[in-house]
Design brief:
Layout lengths: L1 E2 L7 H6 L6 H16 L12 E4 L7 E7 L2 E6 L4 E7 L2 E10 L6 E5 L4 E5 L3 E5 L5 E4 L9 E6 L4 E5 L7 E5 L4 E3 L16 E5 L4 E5 L3 E6 L5 E6 L9 E4 L4 E5 L7 E5 L7 E5 L12 E6 L5 E5 L4 E6 L3 E7 L5 E6 L4 E6 L5 E6 L13 E10 L9 E4 L2 E4 L5 E7 L5 E4 L10 E3 L2 E4 L1
Antiparallel strand pairs: 1-2, 2-29, 3-4, 4-5, 5-6, 7-8, 8-9, 9-10, 11-12, 12-13, 13-14, 15-16, 16-17, 17-18, 19-20, 20-21, 21-22, 23-24, 24-25, 25-26, 27-28, 28-29, 30-33, 30-35, 30-36, 31-32, 31-34
Length: about 450
């Protein structure tokens, strides 16, 4: 069954009054909203007009939702595992791919390799035509399943739900190899059970959310850069996002109240916590299962058992809501046409979409790069060919002129040279290093 409404609405103009683009308009809009909040209940600025798509019985239990490769993607977790790919211009036009090993917990779109990644008992590479997939087993040290998969423009990151370390894995699609970071919690013990991972493309780091704490990880090396306590009531985070300026986390699960925390990535101890119940007279608001942002940086929290999507101004907090009219909302995502999609963990499954006129944020940009060049020579200037030059995890060999050239992501590196040479007395060598890039 499909219901549609083409009712014209002024949401685009009203919504943009709350955006972060125009500081003057923002101040006026927020002052009005504060008056409305104090005189609860408030009336949502989001109209009831929407479209929905119901699926046949047995197709449903949708758990995650992503937009990319010109399609909307969701996954069936319970029963027969499936990947569902939907035409954003026609909700009734969809394809399904069965996953023989079981359900998929989380998905992520990789626009570089033109695939969708999924995880639960391993990592799955689903082809863009949704007709096949390849499975990669987790390293032997992993004792749990994958609860989150995140694509950062170069690597695939997996959050692990096990009761012991490791809590995070990194997969390189080009070499099909794993990195297992050694991470610790605020008590200095091995980190376990990471629920969500977000890529901060401004600082080129990964933020991993685990219970009442967040860990900062160097994207290139996998080294831990810090860990901070986040006083999340109920302890467990369920979702996180990066809006280009701040990192956001949300939780916990039923029956605790819903919270969203804003974290300053330059000083992760600088945190602002919003209790959603304090902003709207909507009854019980709890279990924010999904956080996303749009291209303007506004944040959207999908509440699993409350039937609402809460709209959050990143500077001032919750400002509006969408009533989806049913429980078990699991995944939400924007497409490029301005529709906000929502999928439900029910049987049969159903998809909702609302026209908000906003767009999804662009895919993660590639890392800034530098070209490192130089020469390896004897002290007298004679070239040393075939010397191994290692710059972090990247390496090359010098040519017949002793010249080397390596392109690396912008970061701090140690440079190491290995020379195969036999001699009876100590010889001096010269390593010349220059670089150019962003």
């Amino acid at each position: 069954m499909r219901r549609a409404s083409n009712t014209a609405n002024n949401l685009g103009a009203r919504r943009r009054q709350l955006s972060i683009k125009n500081p003057v308009m923002k101040i006026v809009a927020i002052s009005l909203l504060l008056v409305l909040v104090s005189a609860q209940p408030i009336l949502s600025l989001v109209p009831l007009a929407f479209e929905d798509q119901w699926f046949p019985s047995g197709v449903g239990y949708f758990h995650d939702m992503q937009y990319g490769l010109g399609r909307v993607w969701t996954n069936q977790l319970i029963g027969q595992g499936r990947i569902v790919s939907i035409n954003p211009n026609d909700m009734s036009d969809y394809t399904m791919l069965n996953i023989t090993e079981g359900g998929i917990y989380s998905i992520a779109v990789d626009d570089v390799h033109n695939v969708v990644w999924g995880t639960i008992g391993g990592l799955y590479k689903i082809y863009a035509n949704n007709t096949g997939y390849k499975r990669y087993s987790f390293p032997a040290s992993v004792s749990g399943g994958g609860t989150q998969v995140t694509w950062d423009g170069k690597y695939v990151w997996v959050g692990i739900s096990g009761s012991k370390a490791p809590a995070v894995l990194r997969f390189n699609p080009d070499t099909e190899t794993w990195l297992v970071p050694n991470l610790v919690n605020t008590a200095g013990n091995p980190l376990f059970h990471v629920r969500d991972l977000v890529y901060d493309y401004v600082r080129n780091v990964i933020w991993a959310f685990s219970w009442s704490q967040v860990v900062k990880i160097d994207r290139e090396t996998g080294n831990q850069l810090g860990v901070w306590s986040v006083p999340m009531p109920g302890e467990e985070f369920f979702s996180a996002t990066f809006n280009g300026k701040y990192v956001f986390g949300a939780g916990p699960d039923d029956p605790d109240a819903a919270y969203v925390v804003r974290i300053n990535p330059d000083n992760a101890s600088d945190q602002v916590m919003w209790k959603l119940q304090n902003y709207f007279s909507l009854g019980n608001l709890y279990w924010p299962h999904t956080l996303i942002s749009d291209a303007d940086g506004m944040v959207y929290a999908g509440l699993y058992k409350s039937g609402y999507i809460i709209i959050i101004n990143p500077e001032t907090g919750p400002v509006d809501y969408i009533s989806v009219g049913r429980w078990h909302l699991h995944g939400i995502a924007f497409d490029e046409n301005g529709w906000l999609w929502g999928g439900f963990n029910t049987n049969p499954g159903v998809l909702h979409r609302y026209y908000l006129g906003e767009s999804a944020p662009p895919p993660p940009p590639p890392p800034k790069q530098a070209i490192v060049t130089g020469y390896v020579t004897h002290a007298n200037g004679t070239a040393i060919p075939n010397a191994l030059v290692e710059i972090g995890e990247y390496s090359t060999h010098t040519d017949n002129n002793g010249f080397y050239n390596v392109t690396v992501p912008l970061s701090d590196y140690a440079v190491k040279v290995t020379i195969q040479d036999s001699f009876k007395e100590e010889k001096p060598y010269v390593l010349n290093v220059t670089y150019a890039g962003d």
